[in-house]
Design goal:
The chain has a domain of 40 residues. The protein is α+β, with helices and mostly antiparallel strands and 64 residues long. The C terminus is likely disordered. It has a 3-stranded antiparallel beta sheet. It is elongated. The protein has 2 helices and 3 strands, in the order αβαββ.
Length: 64
C-alpha cells in the first residue's frame, strides 16, 4: 500500500491500470481498495490475473 501512495505522490496521480496476480480470488478486492473498480479476470493455472482500471463512474453519494 505504501508503494502505491509513493507512486501517486511522485507522479501526481494513479496509474490507469493495475495488474494483480493472486493465488485466490482476492485480487479484485485488493484492487478495489485503491479505487480500481473495473476489473477483468482470468485464471492461469493456480493463479488469477486481474487487470483493473480506475473506476470512472461517480458514486450515488457524490450525486446527492
Amino acid at each position: 500500500m505504501a508503494s502505491v501512495t509513493k507512486f501517486r505522490t511522485a507522479y501526481r496521480g494513479a496509474p490507469q491500470l493495475l495488474i494483480v496476480s493472486s493465488s485466490g480470488r482476492d485480487g479484485v478486492a485488493f484492487a478495489s481498495r485503491f479505487g480500481y473498480g473495473d476489473c477483468r479476470t482470468t485464471e492461469t493455472g493456480a493463479r488469477e490475473i486481474a487487470v483493473c482500471k480506475v473506476a470512472t463512474r461517480l458514486s450515488a453519494a457524490a450525486n446527492d
